Amino acid sequence: MSMRLMAQAMSIKVGNPLRKLVLIKLADNANDDGICFPSYQYIADVCEISKASARTHIDALIKMGFVSKKARKNKDGSSSNLYLLHLEKGMPADSTGMPADSTGGMPADSTITCHSSEPVNKPKKTSQKNTALSLLAEFGITGQLADDFAEHRKSKKAAITRTALEGFQREADKAGITLEEAIAIAIERDWRGFNASWNWRGDSIATATNTRKTSTFADDGSWAVGRKLNIDPELIPEELR
């Protein structure tokens, strides 16, 4: 096998893939002088084509000037073909197409790579965040609050859907606040959702209420019930003694 001839054969255009394969196989069998003598049947078997197709393609290569053929006498008295490759000629201008009687396909282990000059327009993926912001805008949530809520829901692995926003709106109505306020509270308290029954007003209000109820000095005077007072009698007016 001549690597030089193999490289030349691969770079030459012959106008037909099967003919190109036959030429490459001839180069594979040739020595550095371009001489080889495979039989038609051998070429047909290797290229997975009929013997007639192998003969037709070799004859076409001879007409194109890439191959010359001579008769060769064997020691047993039989004759065979001797081929001489002329691959330095390159691609002739009058290359012919595939003969009408040529059959067969490329070998199973051959790979054909197709290159298209036309640009391929791949569909652009719509940003999930942009979709969420558009939906929030329908509910009147825009600007920084919308961005913060999108990031908040992402951190909670919760999508912003119409159903979720309708749930926020419903609970906000129950609580008597706006949707914007409900969303802001959920972000501040790191809640995934919002429920009107939750302590959304803050612990400070509840603490203040409890303080008023248990204060030692409550205004209703309950702090004095059950207490004993030691008062100096001299300090009590005579009319009250």
TrEMBL record:
Question: What's the superkingdom here?
Answer: Bacteria
Among the Pfam families in the record, one is HTH_36
Recorded protein name is Helix-turn-helix domain-containing protein
Q: Which organism is it from?
A: Aggregatibacter aphrophilus (strain NJ8700) (Haemophilus aphrophilus)
According to the entry, what is the taxonomic lineage of the organism?
Bacteria, Pseudomonadati, Pseudomonadota, Gammaproteobacteria, Pasteurellales
